[in-house]
Amino acid sequence: MNKQAVRAATIATFAVFAINGFVFASWAARIPAVTRILDLTSGEMGLLLLMIAAGSVIALPTAGTVIGKVGTTGTIRTGGFTVAFGGLIVAFALSQHNVALTAVGLFFFGIGIGLWDVAQNIEGADVERLLGRTIMPQFHGGFSGGALVGALVGAGLSALQVSMSAHLLVIVIGVSISMVIVPRYFLPETANSGSQQTQTTTALKGRSAWSEKRTLLVGLVVLGAALTEGAANDWIAKATVDGLGTSESGGAIMFAVFVAAMTLFRFFGGGLIDTFGRVPVLYGSLGSALVGLVLFVVAPNMWLAGLGAVFWGAGSAMGFPMGMSAAADDPARAAARVSVVSTIGYVAFLAGPPLLGFLGDHVTIRWALLAIAVAIIASILTAPAAKPLPASEYQGAGSH
Questions:
Q1: Which domain holds residue 376?
Q2: 202 and 213: one domain?
Q3: pTM of the model
Q4: What is the pLDDT of residue 400?
């Protein structure tokens, strides 16, 4: 493969990760505005947001089949245009103050995000394989960086009182343009996951990846990592305010500390995997997350809690991208396996934090966060499943 083509594919893949994070976070930052426009309670808004989760959970298991039919480039574009379509519906629905139509738009938004996510991870794994070095964490760092920029843009537009409908229309236009241009620089489909024909055969006719022991164990590794990240995104600020009696700005600073640690470690952690191997780094990452979580919960002051947030964020950085790389070890089965592992991870990412909120009503959200430790320990116990597959085991991992 031409080095220039691989370099272009690397940049394009980083771009689609960053755009994905930007789109999702810029929407999330405006959720208070949507709640106000539709005159919903927090509980009602929570139910409305479940439409995104429902769309993603439906799309993720089918993404392998879609990739088998149209390739990663076609799937990225399908996902991106579906996100744009959903955003267009939501923009119109908000202008009409229509809750039901907003729900429909968010459902399509979730479908698009799900397809987009699986396809970008497949492309990332293929690029990583051709480069011969670990780069998947940097792609996920691009997502985190894009999300940070998206949140800042959303907050800025909110401060400027730019309407949510206008905001969404700009996102729709931006996503549509990027989906036309950026995927042109992806790897050719013949170099992508062993060939489109092989993908179709394995994704549609082969044994279901849901029946493969290794794939499910890798899914458990990702489950713990996704729950750890998702719970921090949703609850670390509130846990700081409620548990340490600090201001809302103090809670926001704690969240920023967590995100910064996670993003930086994603950008610079790839070398550790190349040096020490995937499983040892998983042990170190998950151990760091566990220590950081416990320290954050029991810390008597902001400084120690902040140190806990650093360890927690750094430990949360690598589990998800390493799980994606592990699922994609066998190029011919990558689409089906990444689809399964992504589904398990996203269910934890989307469903776990609300369950922690329910538990927090009984024991406070700060102490409820300790429940995550159970998932982290489960991920540590299943980490050996992420060991890279030797070429001799390709297309046969499910039998072990």
A1: 208-387
A2: no
A3: 0.77
A4: 41
